[in-house]
Amino acid sequence: MVCRGCCCGDPNKNPGADHEGQLARLQAAAEESGGALAVRTSDCLGPCERANVIVVQPSAEARRKGARAAWVGWALDSDATEDVLAWAAAGGPGIAPVPATVELSLFPAPAEGGGEGSRGGAREKSKSKGRAARRGR
Questions:
Q1: What are the residues whose beta carbons fall under 8 Å from the beta carbon of 43, sequence distance 6 or more?
Q2: pTM beyond 0.85, yes or no
Q3: Which residues contact 49 (CB under 8 A, 6 or more apart)?
């Protein structure tokens, strides 16, 4: 999953990064993988201060063994993109060891429904306040 929301993929926030080239490289690798890799984009994954964010999902086999998605931040250059791709091609979370270069950029998944750095949490809170106000609370 590749974030391409308000900050990730934004040439104004990270003008030196080739955002379009990164997405094209990820998509090309997925096509070349014969179905082993897939790339999806998201409008906003939340931790905008870590743009560009890529989430590497574990395989079904790795999930059965307890592996969880790996959140990679600051993936702004071709070296970072290639390191993430090599790890994913080798099996990704729960299967292949995390390359040292990727490990430096890993961060904990934001809490569901919000938390620090999560835009989604702020939206949920404002929705809840609106509903409570309509109910007369």
A1: 4, 5
A2: no
A3: 7, 117
